[in-house]
Design brief:
The protein is of the alpha+beta class. Helices cover 48% and strands 22% of the residues. A six-stranded antiparallel beta barrel has the order 1-2-3-6-5-4. A hairpin with a 3-residue loop joins β2 and β3. α1 runs antiparallel to α4 and α5 crosses α6. The longest helix has 27 residues. The two termini are 39 Å apart.
């Protein structure tokens, strides 16, 4: 989350805590104890009222933090529904006894109307629909030589190779002379110090790096545990790569 654009993070947090802001406002403007306020809210008499009070804006916050293809329509839908809800508001019926919608909802709603208009610009929508434009997701790549082995899904023959650079999302491997394997799927086995991991990967490019021919792969993680274990290995690689860089500078 810390790598996302700061306005996205701030607005998402406001969305997530919006129900608490309404409770705080109600507490500040009445003499009721907090337990009575919470109990009163718990007696909302319809599923719609419960949804609008507790879940509407937090769903928008989760969508905004996601910045995925589904996030944009979900976030915009939350704002459009909120606009409709405020325009059709009836006094003392939503979200709890009050003559008008609470100011936290109105403030966030005004911001969101401006954001929806801003997000209509093609350049602003790009991060939601094109992963390459999400600069905060780009992983740091480490230039380091690591022996490895791989087999193509269509071949199943184990071949030795060497990783020339690597990140959490993929790597660049040396290419056997004359091989044309771009677009194929593979299984790669990586061992670094005492840790070993076997991953599925997609071969996405063939080019040169530091004068050596090779191919770029994107790791295809099957579950969260593979991602966590690979993150551990990448941390070890990061330390080794930085140590090697320092030694080169002092040599």
């Amino acid at each position: 989350m810390k790598h996302r654009p700061l306005p996205f993070v701030i607005l998402a947090i406001l969305h997530l805590i919006e129900p608490l802001l309404k409770i705080a406002y109600f507490k500040a403007t009445t003499s009721f104890p907090i337990l009575s306020i919470v109990e009163n809210i718990s007696h909302l008499n319809s599923t719609r009222a419960v949804f609008e009070f507790w879940f509407l804006f937090p769903i928008g916050g989760i969508a905004l933090l996601g910045v995925k293809k589904w996030s944009y329509p979900v976030f915009v839908s939350v704002q459009l529904y909120s606009i409709y809800s405020h325009l059709s508001y009836e006094a003392f019926t939503w979200p709890y006894a009050s003559s008008s919608p609470q100011w936290p909802s109105l403030v966030i709603l005004c911001c969101n109307v401006a954001i929806i208009l801003y997000f209509l610009l093609p350049e602003i929508r790009k991060p939601f629909f094109n992963r390459a434009d999400r600069w905060w997701e780009h992983r740091e790549r480490y230039t380091i030589r690591i022996p490895c082995s791989y087999s193509l899904v269509t071949d199943n023959t184990l071949k030795d190779a060497e990783i020339l650079n690597i990140s959490h999302s993929g790597a660049f491997l040396t290419l056997p002379e004359g091989a044309e394997i771009c677009g194929q799927k593979m299984i790669i086995n990586i061992t670094f110090i005492s840790d070993n991991i076997c991953l599925n990967a997609n071969i996405i490019s063939q080019h040169e790096f530091d004068g050596e021919k090779g191919f770029g792969i994107a790791f295809d993680y099957e579950n969260i545990w593979e991602k966590i274990y690979m993150r551990k290995i990448i941390k070890m690689i990061s330390k080794a790569a930085k140590k090697h860089h320092v030694q080169q500078l002092t040599a």
